[in-house]
């Protein structure tokens, strides 16, 4: 039985969420909190398996409630966020603090698609309830919890969504010759990205080439994500636009809900275009990005990080076959969900398997840090 704690200041939404899940015999609503403070206290008392958390609440908002819960009683938290720029920025911060997932809802109750959101919510509740034991072991700023903190003293298991990796067998990494000065870095990431990607970018610093990131997100959220990363890392992080020219040092977050392809109309001039693939299972799609990158001249580096499923694996395979490029995969044990990097490792495509910080260090070494431009104070201008 999945024990669910609902946290929302709206009585309508609390009733709506209860209606969404009450038809499932495996889910039991154990409590409803009207404020973030109530949610923190009820989490300690009721020990739910999953929490749904509203972004904006009185007394204590969802951001602070998430921070306190992850510090005291780590529990999978799914944020319910309206499709507004303000709420998207707050949701991104909550994901970085420890929330595992989010569901985008329309801001108007009249427009609320109960059936669609309900199906998505039940699926996510079932998935994340199984990961509660592991969650405490993932270092999300408070450090890993001890085994004694796990229910019934159970040993946490790796949450692989692809083929499981036998830990007794050494990872056979693909050997590639060093390819200095790559002209482009492409990166695919999904669940766990907002909490993980900043670690890699901070360790990486400014590159001598552009980086394009396919982070699975709906529209409205990637603009806030780009702003958050720009603030956190000091790098030139921007959301993509159709027909954007790629320049050294840029970190481009593909616009949510779309796919993007790289084109090179002239040698050394790379452009990014929105080309949403209707048959792609999720957007922005890493496979679409990776495949398009295989057509540009020069060396490339591909990176596959935390996320469900296997997006990025087929694209990485094309890059290896056509370009022989390096493919870096995030160490599965450091992932919130390791389906994406595990699929690359199991396919024998990875040339290195590293934690988020070391991925950044490796990228800095491969792509070469470009000197930061010196900013002249305005009073000297």
Number of domains: 2
Find the CATH superfamily of the largest domain: Methylesterase CheB, C-terminal domain
Sheet with the most strands: spatial strand order: 8-10-7-6-13-14-15
Mean pLDDT: 84
**Largest beta sheet, briefly?**
7 strands, parallel
The proportion of residues forming helix, as a percent range, comes to 25-40%
Number of strands: 15
In CATH, the topology of the largest domain is named Rossmann fold
Low-confidence regions: 139-170, 371-381
Specify the number of helices. Answer: 12
Helix-strand category: alpha/beta
Helix/strand order, N-terminal first: EHEHEHEHEHHEHEHEEEEEHEHEHEH
- Shape field: elongated
Radius of gyration: 21 Å
Provide the β-strand percentage band: 15-25%
Topology:
Elements lengths: L1 E6 L3 H11 L5 E7 L2 H11 L3 E5 L7 H11 L4 E6 L2 H13 L3 E5 L8 H16 L2 H4 L48 E6 L3 H12 L6 E5 L5 H13 L2 E4 L4 E2 L4 E4 L6 E7 L2 E6 L11 H8 L6 E5 L8 H11 L2 E5 L8 H8 L5 E3 L1 H12 L14
Parallel strand pairs: 1-2, 1-3, 3-4, 4-5, 6-7, 6-13, 7-10, 8-10, 13-14, 14-15
Antiparallel strand pairs: 9-12, 11-12
Helix pairs in contact: 1-5, 2-3, 3-4, 4-7, 4-8, 7-8, 7-12, 9-10, 10-11
Please give a structural write-up.
The chain has 381 residues and is an alpha/beta fold. The protein has two domains: 2-138, Response regulator (Rossmann fold), CATH 3.40.50; 184-367, Rossmann fold (3-Layer(aba) Sandwich). It contains twelve helices and 15 strands. The strands form three sheets. Strands 8-10-7-6-13-14-15 form a seven-stranded parallel β-sheet, sandwiched between helices. The protein has a five-stranded parallel β-sheet with strand order 2-1-3-4-5, sandwiched between helices. It starts with a strand and ends in a 14-residue tail after the last helix. Mean pLDDT is 84; it is low at 139-170 and 371-381.
